[in-house]
Specification:
Blueprint (H helix, E strand, L loop, with lengths): L1 H8 L8 H16 L5 H19 L3 H28 L3 H10 L10 H14 L1 H9 L5 H17 L8 H15 L4 H30 L2 H11 L7 E4 L4 H5 L11 H5 L11 H10 L4 E5 L7 H14 E9 L2 E8 L2
Parallel strand pairs: 1-2
Antiparallel strand pairs: 2-4, 3-4
Helix pairs in contact: 1-2, 2-3, 2-4, 3-4, 3-8, 4-5, 7-9, 8-9, 14-15
Length: 335
């Protein structure tokens, strides 16, 4: 996205290269979309800026339409290539569902209060940059427009976890840097030092909180030791850490191995299959070890009931390891 922004802003005196600059920028945006489709909103903003530049350079409507068509095609090309590869391999339906449809089946279990709290936390963390960006609101319309477009994508997704706010960090930093350029050298140095110190302090505090909540490497290692290597009949983690599959060198009992897939209501309608049916199928294959994390408020009751029934019927307790704030209970199949 940074490369695309540089191309969009790279105007020369008569700007004869607006067409080729636009193609390059949109190709980069297309690549970004293959990492996260929300880059599309930033791409739309970049496209509008390019259209304005094209119209200022050449008033021809035909040329404007031609440029727009090329730019849209360039932005969609990486997705089209990926789609074609999967379709030729016989996975067209899976690609379409995973990339374009599943998001509409997912639900955000954060209430208004929880979402507001997360958003307030993100704003507090970025407060120094927000202040600097506000100082540049008149002198950096491109950076501010880019920031609004990235923020719009976050709002539409309705998820204010910090990792989903990462796309906002780049345009916010650009806008803040423009704000720094408007002050004296001494004030700039002081502001930069203050921002860096704030960032270091915030990272240290947040890192400590994250470790306390999510656990340490030593805790995960203890859980791995309790499971053992190459568990017979595969490992099944219900709400537990998916990295256990890798660390125990386990086979995978299901394609749906991430924590929320089968254990939480978030994905109950976002998988393209019935989670309860899939849970019953894999439990019927008798996985050698089941690791169950403590329930949360949005635990899927249908899949939880099936796991509890299978454990009561044919599994024995091995032990409990607390990873972060939550206990993970290990059960082994009776043989």
């Amino acid at each position: 996205m940074a490369g695309a922004a540089l191309l969009v802003l790279g105007r020369d005196a008569d700007d004869r290269r607006v067409g080729s600059r636009g193609v390059g920028a949109m190709l980069l945006i297309g690549l970004a979309m293959q990492i996260k489709y929300t880059a599309m909103f930033e791409g739309i903003f970049f496209g509008l800026v390019l259209l304005k530049q094209s119209h200022e350079t050449d008033r021809s409507i035909a040329r404007l339409i031609r440029n727009a068509a090329f730019w849209v095609a360039a932005a969609l090309l990486p997705t089209a290539i990926a789609w074609a590869v999967y379709a030729l391999a016989g996975h067209n339906d899976a690609f379409v569902f995973a990339n374009f449809l599943s998001i509409f089946g997912q639900q955000n279990d954060d209430g208004f209060g929880s979402s507001l709290l997360k958003l307030a936390g993100a704003l507090a963390l970025s407060c120094p940059l927000v202040v600097l960006a506000w100082c540049s609101r008149r002198s950096a319309p491109f950076a501010m427009g880019w920031l609004v477009a990235a923020g719009l994508a976050v709002v539409i997704m309705r998820n204010f976890e910090l990792l989903y706010l990462l796309p906002v960090a780049l345009p916010l930093a650009v806008a803040a840097g423009t704000g720094l350029a408007r002050v004296s050298t001494l004030a700039r140095r002081r502001s930069l030092i203050a921002v860096l110190l704030f960032g270091v302090a915030a990272a240290a505090v947040l890192g400590g909180i994250r470790v306390a909540r999510r656990g340490t490497a030593q805790q995960v290692a203890a859980l791995v030791d309790m499971v053992g290597q190459h568990p017979p009949g595969c490992l099944f983690t219900f709400g537990s850490e998916p990295i256990l599959y890798y660390l125990t060198q386990s086979c995978l009992p299901t394609p749906y191995i991430f924590r929320s897939h089968l254990s939480r209501m978030t994905e109950a309608h976002g998988l393209g299959i019935d989670p309860a049916t899939e849970t019953a199928r894999l439990l019927a294959a008798n996985p050698g070890v089941i690791v169950v994390r403590a329930d949360k408020a949005d635990t899927n009751p249908a899949t939880r009931a099936r796991v509890a029934a299978a454990i009561a019927d044919r599994y024995r307790l091995v032990g409990v390891v607390k990873v972060g704030a939550l206990p993970h209970t290990v059960y082994r199949l009776n043989r």
